[in-house]
Amino acid sequence: MTFRRPTRPSERLHAAIVERRIRHYGDPDLDRHVAQAVAKPTGRGWRLDKSERSAQIDAVIALCMALERAEHRPAPVQLVGWL
């Protein structure tokens, strides 16, 4: 996963699915990628990983990244002064 902290986006995706904020309607490629993804526990939570070395989960990772971008709004930067 390309996130610096992959647990937060993975947990955000899980919450969105459980809360039914996102759904998909039977796309076979996404179904296959979801079926090959597993949750791996870490010291900071859980993260998405491949069920086996040859598994493809790119669509799930892309969905996770898109949801993170759509829902995570960082606080705006404030100018404190000039250097």
Describe the protein's topology.
Blueprint lengths: L6 H12 L9 H8 L1 E6 L2 E6 L7 H14 L12
Plain-language structure description:
This protein is α+β, with helices and mostly antiparallel strands and 83 residues long. The protein has one domain. The protein is 41% helix and 14% strand. The chain has three helices and two strands, in the order ααββα. A hairpin with a 2-residue loop joins strand 1 (37-42) and strand 2 (45-50). The mean pLDDT is 86.
What would a concise description of this structure say?
The chain has 83 residues and is an alpha+beta fold.
| Helicity range | 40-55%
Mean pLDDT: 86
Q: Enumerate how many helices there are, as a single number.
A: 3
- Which class best fits the helix and strand makeup? alpha+beta
Largest sheet: 2 strands, antiparallel
Number of beta strands? 2
Give the strand content. Answer: 5-15%
Instruction: State the low-pLDDT regions, or none.
Output: none
What's the gyration radius in Å? 16 Å
Query: What strand line-up does the widest sheet have?
Result: 1-2
Order of helices and strands: HHEEH
End-to-end CA span = 37 Å
State the domain count. 1
Report the principal-axis shape: elongated
Question: What are its keywords?
Answer:
elongated; alpha+beta; 41% helix; 83 residues; 3 helices
